[in-house]
UniProtKB/TrEMBL annotation:
Record-linked InterPro entries: PAN2, PAN2-PAN3_catalytic_subunit, PAN2_N, PAN2_UCH_dom, Papain-like_cys_pep_sf, Ribonucl_H, RNaseH-like_sf, RNaseH_sf
Entry GO terms, CC: P-body; PAN complex
Cofactor entry: a divalent metal cation
Similarity remark: Belongs to the peptidase C19 family. PAN2 subfamily.
Binding residue positions for a divalent metal cation: 886, 888, 995, 1048
Protein name: PAN2-PAN3 deadenylation complex catalytic subunit PAN2
Modes of activity regulation: Positively regulated by the regulatory subunit PAN3.
Entry's cofactor comment: Binds 2 metal cations per subunit in the catalytic exonuclease domain.
Keyword check for Iron-sulfur: no
Gene name, Swiss-Prot/TrEMBL: PAN2
Main localization, broad class: cytoplasm
Keyword annotations from UniProtKB, A to Z: Cytoplasm, Exonuclease, Hydrolase, Metal-binding, mRNA processing, Nuclease, WD repeat
EC number annotated for this UniProt entry: 3.1.13.4
Biological source species: Ephemerocybe angulata
Entry remark concerning the domains of this protein: Contains a pseudo-UCH domain. This ubiquitin C-terminal hydrolase (UCH)-like or ubiquitin specific protease (USP)-like domain is predicted to be catalytically inactive because it lacks the active site catalytic triad characteristic of thiol proteases, with residues at the equivalent structural positions that are incompatible with catalysis, and it cannot bind ubiquitin. It functions as a structural scaffold for intra- and intermolecular interactions in the complex.
């Protein structure tokens, strides 16, 4: 016998059927094959003499064959179970899954059985016992006696197991989710979440699993461009530790693998195209054997003989291709030795002779074997019950005109029945639409959406924004928030930070510090403290209206990538493996580090904590955040050998909880929340090192030393719950919570605790909510300060589940009833902090003179392109000052849409826009209509689409090197708009709600005049574009080329003054009806200019659904009568009629 393989003549069946399974017999010269029709056939010897054949069950393909010493185990896709046959084809036993509801009535069991698909896979026979493992499609693993077919035990599994394999020490399983698990071969269970028992091998299903010695080989499906594809690597693992070893590359795509007997580390890899590679896993770099099978279709199965002398591969035409190491002079049997004789099928027993007479009983005729009760065994109530409704009666008007022709009745369909056939009756549509454009809903608890029953209470479950054809603005956020405290939206990247932002917002000193920072001249383009201040101002002003922290989240992404903290970046792809509890705690440290550095104005830091003498002078050099949450202690280190004591400064801002080890001899009191927090603060630790004094390698003890009076006003705590052992501390015990609303903390001076303790009160906590069905998410539980709490609530605690806000009882906040609620971040406030804090030194007002400053950073600004005039100091706006505003945007991220099989589509994530240009005009006074802000906005992010057709922005307009215009950083423009809002300006514009939403600023409704709402009739359900209104009311064609924000803002301002004059005349309602009437005639689009080519149908921008633009060149208006298509100049008539004769159409408005 040679060491290399060579092809031998293949085995060709008489009736070609694809060979879906193949196996060598270990004791006889037999090759067993399974076909697509569910039959198992034996071929004797390498010449392929056809022998025994028997059906597995059903008419679907055989999925696996295992040949033993005295039996053949096989299962098929249509058999619903697994059976054992003798080598002669006689069935010994058959195992089918019996549902656990066998106590139910027979009819119920039959229906239940039909919904189960039975067996998905089975293993080889366990060497230490007569048992095989069987994977059931109802997520169970059954152990079956291989001799009798009886069930030994059944255990639950977390997913469908596609492959099972007994190794020398354990049971291996491969799942449809790509996991490889190591089971106890006696019990079938795995260690929960243990690294050595579960490993993610492939992103898709496992398609092959083999083991030999201490090696485990797997193949499976990968993912490329959101589509499954065969993983080109054969993964290799060490069975002892499940540590990944160097994989085996196979560029043709491994479809089948099989270990090579007598070579403990070699494996046979085959592709569907017939390429066979034999490689040694212990030396992947060594040259292996390559063979190409002569296949005309594709390979469907693979097997290796017990001695490794033969390799067989079946193809889609039923041909079995064989590679052999034996020579023609000395051919070997398949099993490698002269084993048991080949079994042949015996002759069928003859039918018994029956002599028929009138008295021959019918029971002498044999009946087939049935494994389920017959119809005659059904109970009378079941058999007589109607299972389908009777057919509908033919309407009498059809019967009256019916005619017969060849026993077929036909009749014309009456008019009154047309359009009513083949319709399924449905109930009335519920009024629980989540969109403002839908029907109004009742504000009742019974109208809440029905959620799937899980152990997670509804208030904690994940909420998602749904998108209608009108965009995210149409979503009814008020359905989820009936309070005066605003939530944050989730459709933007890095929105997982919402929970921590809400927690910091309701810590009053941190909020005031962030708000004061935006009043300073911060030069950093990406400043988290500035963005936190802007979000805090927005949440304060919104009073329950939903907000979005888009600028804050964008800054988080920019700074995280700049710091190479890629674990903090949200890429918009949901990954169930992301541990959000750990992610938010990492971000917590990242955020505090930036807040400390960004808020540090050394040596002019405000003193927030009252101090005296030299302590006050030192406080001016400490960052404000450090003054609030910094634990400034001494780290005392003691050498056990020489007793030398060494001290060094230790400043920390976040306390990581450390838990007692399991089995530690601690009392129950040391396992409470107060004791664990105390221990984590003082941090008593033991380590080994070389002592600098005695030069011995000794044991050291270290601890923090800090007096109780020096503890900070706030404690920021990371819960550090990373395993079930730590989580067990937090779970409720006998309905008593682990977490306490108030705790007393003692500092430590020397070796003793400071007797004077300090009381802390829980202010907020961030928790992770985990469910089995969906991705985990974060919520924030916040105690609202007394100064902001409304009297109508029973508890000061509120849950902020992104944009859903609801009042909660304190016992529900403190309770951790299950592992679905995992603590992440806690903030505690020192009870006497109100007496110790002084926030009066923090600036509170934004400098209004920023409106008078030229803030351009463009290096090549064209002065001829400057169209605005800055405000003079005597022109600073006062409360009630009118200003006209319009903004243009560019797209930073395209819309993500999912197209379904039924042709419908669902918006997964809307397009993300960024402010590109903003123009603000004087709204009244002698210089009315003159812009004082016309800034293009610089952004460091990549722009996906300039949306030139709708924004007028072109490539280079936002680049500091090439821009001709006034280019300003986004934060500076935001401060200008913030100053206008704070000074009480009234903004006039068209479609301002979306503009302010994208700018990410909240403007009180009383400071907004939106012409899209002025010229709107609710019953018409159509809002008018700015372009059409400008043509009809102002008789001006705007947006003829590109959008111009100055032109649009002027048109909106003129439309507002036109509205005022029409209202004063009492003719506005009549005019509005005329606009809609004429609008239908012109399809709500202005006609083309004379001599111009007809414009193309305007495309609705996927991102800018704003109504169009406007541009009166002068301020004010006169009124003339004219035809809509050809407006002409004119003025008031003597009667004061501003509409002219009936049917005269629109009127031209100009200000004199």
């Amino acid at each position: 016998m040679s060491n290399t393989y060579h092809p031998v003549p293949p085995i060709t069946p008489n009736f070609p059927q694809p060979s879906t399974a193949i196996a060598f017999d270990p004791v006889s010269d037999i090759l067993w094959t399974g076909s697509t029709l569910g039959n198992v056939t034996a071929y004797y010897g390498s010449r392929g003499m056809r022998g025994v054949s028997f059906p597995v069950g059903g008419a679907l393909p055989v999925n696996r064959i295992f040949a033993g010493d005295s039996q053949v185990l096989a299962s098929g896709h249509g058999s619903g179970g697994i059976g054992s046959w003798s080598k002669g084809g006689m069935n010994k036993w058959y195992f089918r899954y019996v549902p656990r509801n066998h106590h139910l009535p027979f009819m119920t069991r039959v229906v239940s059985n039909r919904t189960q698909s039975g067996v998905s896979s089975f293993s080889n026979v366990y060497h230490a016992g007569h048992s095989i493992a069987v994977s059931l499609l109802n997520l169970e693993l059954a152990f079956v006696n291989s001799m009798t077919g009886t069930t030994v035990r059944q255990v639950q599994t977390s997913s469908i197991l596609t492959h099972l394999q007994f190794s020398h020490s354990s049971l291996l399983s491969g799942s449809a989710e790509g996991y490889i698990r190591v089971h106890d071969p006696r019990t079938g269970v795995t260690k929960n979440d243990a690294a050595e028992s579960v490993i993610k091998a492939h992103s898709g299903a496992v398609t092959g699993l083999q083991s030999t010695g201490n090696y485990v080989f797997t193949i499976g499906m990968g993912e490329r461009q959101s589509r499954p594809y065969p993983d080109p690597l054969v993964k290799v693992y060490d069975l002892r530790t499940m540590r990944a070893l160097p994989p085996i590359p196979f560029s043709s795509g491994p479809a089948f693998i099989h270990v090579l007997p007598k070579r403990t580390s070699s494996i046979v890899v085959a592709s569907m195209q017939g390429l066979v590679n034999i490689v040694d896993a212990s030396d992947p770099a060594a040259a292996g054997e390559f063979h190409q099978l002569d296949v005309t279709t594709y390979v469907t199965s693979l097997a290796v003989s017990p001695t490794g002398a033969y390799i067989a591969a079946g193809d889609a035409e039923g041909v079995v291709h064989i590679l052999s190491q034996s020579t023609d002079e000395s051919p070997l049997p398949f099993n490698g030795f002269d084993g048991q004789p080949i079994p042949w099928v015996g002759p069928a027993e003859p039918l018994p002779e029956i002599e028929w007479t009138p008295s021959t009983p019918l029971n002498s005729i044999g009946m087939p074997y049935y494994d389920s009760p017959l119809f005659s065994a059904w109970s009378p109530p079941v058999s007589s019950a109607p299972y389908f409704p009777p057919p509908a009666r033919i309407p009498p008007q059809v019967s009256a005109s019916m005619k017969m022709n060849d026993n077929i009745a036909y009749a014309p369909l009456p008019k009154e029945l047309r359009g009513r056939r083949n319709l399924v009756p449905v109930g009335p549509k519920k009024d629980t639409a989540r969109f403002r454009s839908g029907k109004p809903r009742k504000e009742d608890e019974s109208d809440r959406p029905t959620l799937e029953p899980t152990e997670v209470p509804p208030v904690y479950r994940r909420v998602e924004i749904e998108y209608s054809k009108f965009g995210v603005e149409d979503f009814d956020f008020g359905f989820y928030n009936q309070t005066q405290y605003s939530g944050l939206e989730t459709h933007i990247l890095n929105s997982y930070t919402n929970s921590l932002v809400q927690s910091l917002h309701y810590i009053h000193p941190i909020r005031q510090l962030a708000k004061s920072h935006i009043t300073t001249n911060c030069l950093s383009e990406h400043c988290l403290l500035c963005e936190l201040g802007f979000v805090s101002r927005m949440l304060e002003d919104a009073k329950g209206t939903n907000c979005q922290a888009s600028n804050f989240c964008r800054t988080v992404g920019v700074l995280a990538q700049a710091s190479n903290a890629i674990e903090l970046v949200d890429y918009g792809r949901e990954n169930p493996d992301v541990n959000y509890a750990q992610k938010i705690q990492i971000f917590h440290r990242f955020l505090l580090d930036h807040l400390i550095s960004e808020g540090n104005a050394y040596p002019r830091n405000p003193i927030l904590v009252k101090r005296r003498g030299r302590e006050a002078q030192l406080a001016a050099s400490i960052s404000p955040i450090t003054q609030l949450i910094g634990v400034d202690a001494k780290n005392v280190i003691v050498c056990h050998h020489c007793k030398a004591v060494r001290e060094k400064d230790n400043l920390t801002h976040v306390i990581d909880l450390t838990y007692p080890r399991k089995g530690a001899p601690d009392s129950a009191s040391s396992k409470g929340f107060t004791a664990i927090l105390q221990q984590s603060l003082l941090r008593n630790m033991t380590h080994k090192a070389t002592c600098q004094k005695c030069k011995h390698f000794s044991t050291f003890t270290s601890r923090r030393s800090i007096a109780s009076k020096d503890l900070p006003p706030f404690l920021a705590v990371n819960a550090s719950v990373y395993n079930d052992e730590n989580m067990d501390f937090w779970l409720d015990t006998r309905n008593k919570p682990f977490l306490r609303p108030k705790v007393q903390i003692h500092g430590q001076m020397g070796d003793e605790l400071d007797p004077a303790g300090v009381w802390y009160e829980l202010k907020s906590l961030v928790v992770k909510i985990s469910t089995k069905e969906r991705q985990s998410h974060l919520v924030s539980l916040v105690k609202i300060p007394d100064a902001e709490l409304d009297d109508g609530y029973d508890s000061p605690w509120f849950i902020f589940n992104d944009f859903m806000v609801q009042n909660m009882a304190e016992q529900d906040v403190l309770s951790f009833p299950g592992k679905w609620k995992v603590p992440s971040i806690l903030y505690l406030e020192r009870i006497d902090s109100k007496d110790r804090l002084d926030l009066s030194s923090l600036p509170s007002e934004l400098d209004p003179f920023i409106l008078c400053q030229d803030t351009s950073i463009s290096q090549n600004r064209d002065h001829d392109a400057i169209r605005h005039e800055l405000l003079h100091k005597d022109e600073l706006p006062n409360p009630g000052t009118l200003v006209a505003i319009d903004a243009e945007f560019v797209s930073m991220q395209q819309e993500e849409t999912e197209f379904r099989s039924d042709g419908t589509k669902k918006v997964i994530r809307p397009a993300r826009l960024s402010l590109a240009r903003v123009s603000v005009l004087r709204g009244d006074g002698p210089r009315q209509g003159v812009p004082f802000i016309d800034d293009h906005i610089h952004t460091s992010e990549t722009i996906v689409d300039y949306l030139t057709e709708f924004s007028g922005i072109k490539f280079g307009d936002l680049d500091p090197v090439h821009s001709r215009y006034t280019l300003t950083p986004l934060k500076v423009v935001y401060k200008k708009l913030r100053a206008l809002v704070d000074r009480g300006c009234i903004f006039v514009g068209h479609g301002l709600s979306k503009d302010f939403r994208i700018i990410n600023i909240f403007v009180p409704p009383e400071q907004v005049i939106d012409t899209v709402d002025l010229y709107f009739v609710k019953s018409r359900q159509r809002r008018l574009s700015l372009r059409f209104l400008s043509w009809f009311i102002l008789h001006q064609h705007i947006q003829t080329d590109n959008h111009d924000s100055i032109e649009d803002a002027r048109s909106a301002l003129s439309l507002y003054y036109a509205y005022q004059d029409l209202e004063s005349e009492g003719m506005f309602d009549q005019k509005l009806d005329e606009i809609y009437k004429e609008g239908r005639q012109y399809n709500f689009k202005p006609p083309p200019l004379p001599g111009a080519s007809p414009p193309l149908a305007p495309m609705q921008s996927p991102v800018l659904a704003l109504a169009a633009a406007f541009n009166p060149q002068t301020s004010g208006y006169n009124i003339t009568d004219s035809k809509p298509a050809t407006p002409s100049a004119g003025g008031y008539n003597s009667s004061g009629n501003i509409f002219g004769s009936p049917g005269s159409g629109a009127s031209s408005w100009r200000r004199s």
